[in-house]
Design a protein that fits this description.
The protein is an alpha/beta fold and about 500 residues long. The chain has 17 helices and 24 strands.
Length: about 500
């Protein structure tokens, strides 16, 4: 077996009373893809940040290429052959591919940057690692998947022998994932070791050699991928059963009130004559391929985007919703698929984020009652089991699943009636998914109504009472859950005309 190039033993780290890493062990071999898995908040990213010097460990030791190391920053780690590729790419879209790779170390011709040599060097680098990208193209014109490959190429240009890939496929298409995996196998053949962090279980069997699982800051175990099953890994990750079967019948009574009716909604080419009803206590799933128009419909209902024609009725009464503020006043809330961009104030506390939509309830004579906010935020976040040492914790320090819970807490404090969840489990782990499912079911049982947009068919089948299928801006079919097989959903998701 290949030599061990990284050996971490007994790594310990605390943050303000939170024991984030509890004597964690981890090792990596040359030419290996070693998957690092665990629920959000398990400590995976913290362990990697300790490795590259972003955090200083409190105890333990790290041996890299046979030498004990203690990096003070990322630059030191990079000089020793470690590069980390974050989920959110750190590139400059207005520069060319070659400029992004060699920024800060450009080849010079006298006092002028030698662009021709830089592009030539980039081309040679791409040929070496099997990438077909033109070095002179502007980075922003590439897909996210191709940008990811450029960032990996940049790491290789630093002579990196160890790559950390943090959720590298989160925003990639199926074709781009295949391209990335091909590139990773080429790097493996050159002896480069890779630590692969992902929540996508199906990828682990395809690309990894071993899997190490963490839970609540602790090392749980390491297994060979070959010969292990998804259930083996899940059991290690969560220590509990989390999967539910496909829903066989609707939980909504036939005489349930219609709380929302959308009639003949149109907006350019993205929404074409969309009509549907949402019942009280219903989870209405929206399925379809990328670009089907699901998010566009949600944003139009919420008043985030204007629409050309059509009507919206709440409890049988026609309403005009031109802004999100009007939607909120009418009891509609929207949880965006991009929660960090549209849903969260990361540098504010849990209390502040929870009360964001309800400040008028906590303000008297222009003075905000912070104590009341903290008390109410604590009650609702505890009911959602948000993991945090206090309500004063900044949101940026929470895991993705817990950040999502804080957004839900916000709308519960506002006492919203209609919840629109757009890709509610994107970027969160299996355990957090299970909790999110339970939360949506609890909302529905409590008389709230849920519109859930999801690209995961298993998720649609697990939760929905009915399924709205869209293709190219149109609703092509509304299926009762008992008829919502994966084959049926995919048939209508690719059918251009209404059934």
């Amino acid at each position: 077996m290949n030599e061990i190039i990284l050996d971490m033993k007994g790594v310990d780290k605390r943050f303000f009373g939170v024991h984030a890493l509890k004597g964690v062990d981890f090792n990596l071999r040359a030419g290996e893809v070693h998957a690092l898995m665990g629920e959000n908040g398990a400590g995976k990213s913290t362990l990697m940040k300790v490795l590259v010097g972003m955090y200083q460990r409190d105890a333990g030791e790290i041996t890299l290429f046979g030498e004990k190391v203690n990096f003070k920053n990322i630059a030191e780690a990079q000089k020793k052959g470690i590069s980390i590729i974050h989920q959110e790419l750190n590139m400059m879209n207005h520069l060319t591919v070659a400029q992004n790779i060699y920024i800060g170390r450009e080849p010079m011709k006298g006092t002028v940057i030698d662009d021709k040599k830089m592009e030539k060097d980039a081309k040679a680098l791409f040929d070496k690692i099997g990438i077909n990208i033109e070095p002179d193209v502007q980075l922003g014109k590439l897909t996210v998947g191709r940008q990811q490959m450029v960032e990996i190429a940049k790491a290789i240009s630093h002579e990196s022998k160890l790559l950390v890939l943090d959720e590298p496929t989160a925003a990639l298409t199926e074709f781009e994932v295949k391209e990335l995996f091909k590139m990773m196998r080429d790097l493996q053949a050159k002896g480069i070791g890779m630590i692969y962090i992902s929540h996508r279980m199906d990828e682990i069997n395809v690309i990894s050699d071993r899997v190490t699982v963490m839970r609540d800051g602790e090392y749980i175990g390491t297994i060979d991928t070959e010969g292990s099953t998804k259930d083996d890994i899940v059991k290690m990750m969560v220590g509990r059963v989390i999967f539910g079967d496909k829903k066989e019948k609707s939980n909504v009574s036939k005489d349930a009130d219609t709380v929302l009716e959308v009639s003949n909604l149109n907006s350019g080419s993205s929404i074409k004559n969309v009509s549907f009803e949402l019942k009280r206590g219903e989870i209405l799933g929206f399925s379809g391929l990328m670009g089907a128009g699901r998010t566009e419909v949600a944003r139009a209902i919420y008043g985030a985007d204007k629409f050309d024609s059509g009507s919206i009725y709440l409890n049988g009464k026609k309403v005009k919703i031109n802004t999100p503020e009007q939607a909120v006043k009418n009891g509609i809330c929207y949880l965006s698929e991009d929660r960090k961009r549209y849903g969260l104030l990361l540098i504010k506390s849990i209390s502040e984020n929870s009360a964001l939509a309800s400040l008028e309830n906590y303000t008297k004579f222009g003075i905000i009652n912070d104590k009341k906010i903290a008390a109410d935020a604590k009650i609702v976040n505890e009911s959602l089991k948000t993991k945090t040492p206090s309500m004063n914790q900044l949101l940026k320090n929470l895991s993705g699943g817990n950040q999502q819970k804080v957004i839900i807490a916000r709308w519960l404090l506002k006492n919203s009636d209609i919840f629109i969840f757009d890709e509610p489990t994107r970027g969160i782990d299996i355990g957090a998914k299970s909790e999110m499912y339970a939360l949506m079911e609890k909302l529905a049982k409590g008389g709230k109504s849920v519109i859930m947009i999801s690209s995961e068919l298993a998720e649609i089948q697990r939760l929905s009472d009915r399924v709205v299928v869209m293709c190219e801006g149109r609703i092509t079919k509304i299926l009762d859950i008992q008829d919502a097989t994966q084959e049926n959903i995919m048939y209508y998701a690719t059918k251009r005309e209404e059934a």
